[in-house]
Write a structure and sequence with these properties.
single chain, 569 residues, alpha+beta, four-stranded parallel β-sheet, 17 helices, 18 strands, 33% helix, disordered N terminus
């Protein structure tokens, strides 16, 4: 399911596109369901057990692959999560009385999420009987095309003309040189270091848009920036409209995690182990897990693995140590040593081939940013934003206030964004990248601001001051979320710092997360989690079925020609 055309269709054209996509996916869905059912009824894996550490998308996907491609009994798959809820960084929760919250918003992409769409074509939708999650998402997206008309806004509330990337010749030369540089020469190099001879690069429309779309910083890895440019080269010519963004009908927890969990529950997957995994024991002569040490309900517990058992571990979580505030209370900034990184560090000290978490989780001042979710009664503010931007909710993707000292951006999703919303409740989401900077109107660092103060800062950037009283009277809650390690996967690092999914010498152990090394693919995406899970299951079990490969758009002459033309704009 790859589309290389722009997503500008609306009305009947969009409906036709949605129906066409749905028809194509139905054939894939039926084929996979028949295949899975055939394997389930024809033979199982016996008593082999699989222990999946972490309850995020990667572990849930690994469980699905164990069932579909190796016919595991569901009850022999154990998903171990220390929190009271599954989903990892794909979250969404709240009530109309207390307000809703999303720590982040996951922008999907139709062309580059190859394994994600393939897997979810076999996962039934919870809301659309007889359809898959892939069908549901793509149909919704085709009927709600994105075309941002207010991508960048200046300090005066003027929407910027962003058709030009604003590159000079030095910017173009350095960009081209970066894309041609082998990855092994980019260990520990930052984007700022790469463009040191052209500080102008960081003043361009391109940088403001690329930075806030993907949450890069100047000090982020040039390695990861290069990966993104190659992988998302289709988005380069449409970065000013974000037409390539694929949205889910609801927040990602309800649109992605819940149907996947329901599917796994239907096969009897064990979700009962609510515990923090503190350590793993290995055989001395190989990367073979023998024991898993847990802290469960305040008590120590050990699970012994037989030689045939599997252990698949999430070795890092970008939302570890996240905290919430509310309308009157700031979200505390508490950059403690993350639980997932602690486990990763312990196992890496035993087996150096398992990488090193230090470059990713050692500098929270560089990896933090703060989001906020606004819940309101009625749609007054959303209507004002619509009139200002020219975008109805769900069609504008990201609006960035380029002169904001916090570098604040907002997203107004299609309503409702939560299933618990009624018709008189609206929400939108935003974030700031520079949480230690003083606000332009609220003279405090963002990380010290309550939800009310963050909303006041936004009102001023939108120049809605004369409507402040009416806006504030309609607020249910504004929930800030501080995430000390949300950008950790972008940190400068050496190639060896990220472990392979199947480490050298492994017989029963794999790692899955945004912190493993997958050649050519890009971190901070749903696709990375699903691809890692598939690689882990296929690699450990010797499954010869091929993964969906990374689509080499950056080698397509037509795509490159369009990108080159964009660079000259």
């Amino acid at each position: 399911m790859k589309r290389q055309t722009k997503k500008l269709a609306a009305g009947a054209a969009a409906a036709a596109a949605g129906i066409a996509a749905a028809t194509a996916v139905r054939h894939v869905t039926k084929k996979r369901e028949q295949s899975a059912q055939s394997m389930v009824s024809s033979g199982r894996e016996g008593e082999r057990q699989a222990y999946l550490i972490g309850g995020g998308l990667a572990s849930l996907s690994a469980a699905a692959y164990l069932i579909q491609d190796r016919s595991f009994y569901g009850e022999h798959i154990h998903i171990m999560e220390g929190m009271s809820i599954l989903g990892g960084s794909n979250d969404g929760a709240g009530t109309m009385q207390n307000g809703f919250v999303c720590r982040g918003g996951r922008m999907l992409n139709e062309e580059t999420y190859e394994n994600f769409w393939d897997l979810f074509s076999s996962i039934p939708s919870l809301d659309w009987p007889g359809k898959s999650v892939t069908e549901e998402i793509l149909n919704f997206d085709h009927l709600h095309p994105t075309h941002a008309q207010a991508r960048l806004v200046d300090r005066y509330g003027v929407i910027q003309d962003v058709r030009s990337m604003q590159f000079n010749n030095t910017d173009r030369f350095l960009m081209t040189k970066l894309l041609a540089t082998p990855e092994e020469k980019l260990d520990d190099v930052t984007i700022e270091q790469w463009f040191k001879d052209s500080p102008h690069f960081f003043t361009t429309n391109f940088w403001y848009m690329w930075q806030t779309t993907f949450a890069f910083q100047k000090w982020s890895s040039a390695f990861e920036f290069r990966r993104y440019m190659n992988r998302m080269i289709l988005e380069f010519p449409r970065i000013e409209t974000l037409e390539g963004v694929t949205r889910t009908p609801y927040n990602q927890y309800e649109s992605v995690i819940l149907p996947l969990k329901a599917y796994l529950e239907g096969f009897g997957v064990d979700f009962s182990i609510r515990a923090v995994v503190e350590d793993l024991d290995f055989k001395e002569d190989s990367v073979t897990v023998t024991d898993i040490h847990l802290l469960e309900n305040g008590k120590q517990r050990t699970i012994h693995l037989e030689d045939s058992d599997l252990c698949i571990m999430t070795n890092g979580c970008m939302t570890d140590c996240a905290t919430l505030g509310d309308f009157k209370t700031p979200a505390p900034y508490e950059p403690k040593d993350p639980i997932s990184a602690q486990l990763w560090k312990r196992v890496a000290e035993k087996k150096p081939v398992l990488g090193d978490p230090t470059p990713f989780f050692g500098k929270p001042e560089e990896t933090n940013w703060e989001s906020f979710t606004v819940t309101m009664k009625g749609n007054r503010m959303l209507k004002m934003i619509e009139q200002f931007s020219g975008n109805i909710p769900g069609s504008g993707a990201l609006m960035t206030f380029k002169d904001s000292s916090w570098l604040m951006s907002i997203v107004v999703a299609a309503q409702p964004h939560f299933k618990a919303q009624d018709a008189n409740t609206t929400i939108f989401w935003g974030y700031g990248l520079y949480t230690d900077a003083l606000g332009d109107y609220v003279k405090k660092p963002m990380r010290e601001c309550s939800g009310e103060e963050i909303l006041m800062e936004l009102i001023h950037h939108l120049h809605f001051e004369e409507n402040t009283k009416d806006i504030m009277e309609s607020v249910v809650n504004v929930i800030p979320c501080m995430m000390p390690y949300i950008d950790s996967q972008f940190q400068p690092r050496a190639m060896s710092d990220r472990p392979l999914v199947i480490p050298s010498g492994s017989t029963n152990f794999a790692m899955i997360s945004q912190f493993v090394e997958i050649p050519e693919d890009m971190v901070f995406t749903e696709e990375y989690s699903v691809r890692a899970a598939r690689m882990a299951v296929y690699g450990l079990l010797g499954i010869e079925k091929k993964l969906c490969p990374v689509t080499p758009y950056h080698k397509n002459p037509k795509v490159l020609a369009v990108a080159a033309k964009t660079m000259l704009r």
